[in-house]
Design brief:
Elements: H1 7-20, E1 24-29, E2 35-37, E3 40-41, H2 48-54, E4 62-66, E5 78-82, H3 87-93, H4 98-104, E6 110-113, H5 117-125, E7 130-132, H6 142-159, E8 165-167, H7 170-178, H8 182-205, H9 212-225, E9 230-231, E10 236-239, E11 260-265, E12 267-268, E13 277-282, H10 289-307, H11 315-333, H12 340-346, E14 372-373, E15 376-377, E16 385-388, E17 391-394, E18 414-417, E19 420-424, E20 429-431, H13 440-443
Parallel strand pairs: 1-7, 5-6, 7-8
Antiparallel strand pairs: 1-4, 2-3, 4-5, 9-12, 10-11, 11-13, 14-15, 16-19, 17-18, 19-20
Helix pairs in contact: 1-2, 8-9, 10-11
Bound molecules: manganese (II) ion.
Manganese (II) ion binds near residues 276, 359, 387 and 389.
Length: about 450
């Protein structure tokens, strides 16, 4: 039940958020349990914003944060509504921190049983010039917030004065989450370390004729054995042509002689920091000609793209670096034809490379934070973490663009992606997942 990060980090984040939202009251709900089937739930997964600011890993809780720019100095600024201690419920579903734990352990200025939220929330929001709440994500709390806001607007009509405005608080939180603190980077290195070791073991254990599910079991066994909470996302273990299905998670086929195996898997730690790694290698330990040519091309594209990760660059520049190398290489191999610049401008490579080169990584696997505002791309800054994951997928699933060559059969059924997690540093970048090998020679052993 302990949080691995020092809880003072969560307190500092709340201070920082409130400093930027001085005149606001923020309502931040935790996640709820999600039904798996009948009366069985999925394993609990906390809302990342809530965890980031509160550190509490319990369902249903609601945090209220009140900025220092309104109210009187003695007012509570951090209020938690939590499931109260309850012997019977705890016998079935595990220990709760309760109101006492919210006050003593999680630093709340005031705490109440969750059942008192409907009667107490109004008083905590009364007088706030702005109410921060994300519409559309918390169906259990939203009607209450809207009702209170509506009442305030009514009162304003009758008695005058300022009515609160409602605003989306998530951009303010996500801007903070986009830049990782040193302690967060340390946790991401740990998620990367465990996930790299799992990839190394999986490659060494792979043999012709095994089930994809056996490799999945091996990866996920390693995650749990090393103390991770669970896979960060459904593991992709895709032999041969299955690798051309980007989100293939059935993992139900046998590994064929002469095919490649693509593994996209990473773990999530107890405090939710994630790794996201893809490696591709020959199942029988030896690339054949087409596979080797494409592997070298994707690896070169990935190295160029990683090279573009530095302060002041952008995810668009990282993506373009990868696409440039891929398009040039595919022209040389005869899988594309024409002018490279025009192919890039018209996206005439997308039947072979249909996805972007990366995404932010953090508490969410596809982490929050904007990559651009309109046409302005977010400049990379130290502390940002992104994946770099170019790939090529040679199949006949997508139509070949006009003017581009049909794909000869001997190229088909090859899917390759190479993905690392890369942190921006003051001078360039740090590849968090470097311990998972990717050199061509290492893939052949
Ligand atoms: Mn990824």
């Amino acid at each position: 039940m302990n949080s691995l990060l020092d809880l003072s980090a969560h307190a500092q984040r709340r201070q920082h958020l409130l400093a930027s939202l001085e005149d606001a009251a923020v309502v931040l709900p935790a996640a709820q349990l999600v039904t798996h089937h009948a009366d069985v739930h999925h394993r609990f997964r906390q809302n990342s914003d809530f965890f980031y600011l509160c550190g509490l890993d319990e369902a249903n809780a609601v945090a209220v944060l009140r900025g220092h720019g309104w109210g009187s100095p003695a007012d509570p600024r951090f209020i938690l509504f939590v499931e109260p201690r309850d012997a019977t419920a705890e016998v079935w579903n595990g220990q709760r921190w309760g109101v006492e734990g919210a006050l003593e352990h999680f630093g709340a200025d005031a705490a109440h049983p969750l059942g008192e939220l409907p009667e107490r929330l109004e008083a905590y929001l009364r007088g706030a010039p702005r109410i921060g709440f994300r519409i559309g994500h918390h169906p259990h709390v939203e009607p209450l917030v809207l009702r209170i806001w509506g009442q305030q607007l009514e009162q304003r009509q009758r008695y005058g004065g300022q009515g609160a405005s409602l605003f989306d608080v998530s951009p303010a939180i996500h801007t903070m989450r986009l830049r990782k603190e040193p302690a967060e980077l340390e946790r991401m290195r740990e998620a990367a370390r465990i996930s790299c070791a799992a990839h190394e073991q999986a490659r060494q254990a792979t043999q012709v004729g095994m089930g994809e599910y056996q490799i999945e079991a091996l990866l996920e066994s390693h995650f749990r054995s090393a103390g991770a909470r669970q896979p960060a996302y459904p593991s992709i273990v895709a032999g041969g042509d299955n690798a051309c299905i980007l989100h293939y998670t059935n993992n139900s086929d046998r590994l064929g002689d002469g095919d490649l195996l693509l593994i996209d898997a990473g773990c999530s730690l107890m405090d939710y920091y994630n790794a996201d790694i893809t490696r591709t290698f020959p199942i029988n330990g030896r690339f054949r000609g087409e596979q080797r040519a494409l592997y070298e091309l994707v690896l070169s594209a990935q190295r160029h793209a990683i090279g573009a990760v530095q302060p002041g660059s952008s995810s668009a520049e990282v993506h373009n670096a990868a696409v440039q190398v891929l398009v040039d290489g595919l022209l040389e191999l005869g899988l594309l034809r024409g002018d490279g610049e025009a192919i890039m401008a018209n996206h005439d490579y997308r039947h072979l490379y249909p996805h972007r080169t990366g995404h932010w990584l953090g508490l969410d696997v596809h982490d929050v934070g904007t990559s651009r505002l309109g046409d302005h791309h977010t400049a990379l800054e130290p502390g940002m973490v992104l994946t770099v994951e170019p790939g090529l997928y040679i199949s006949n699933r997508l139509p070949v663009p006009e003017g581009q060559p049909e794909i000869p059969n001997h190229w088909k059924g090859i899917g390759i992606r190479i993905e690392d997690d890369v942190a921006v540093t003051a001078t360039g970048h740090e590849v968090l997942t470097a311990a998972a090998l990717k050199d061509l020679q290492a893939m052949e052993t």
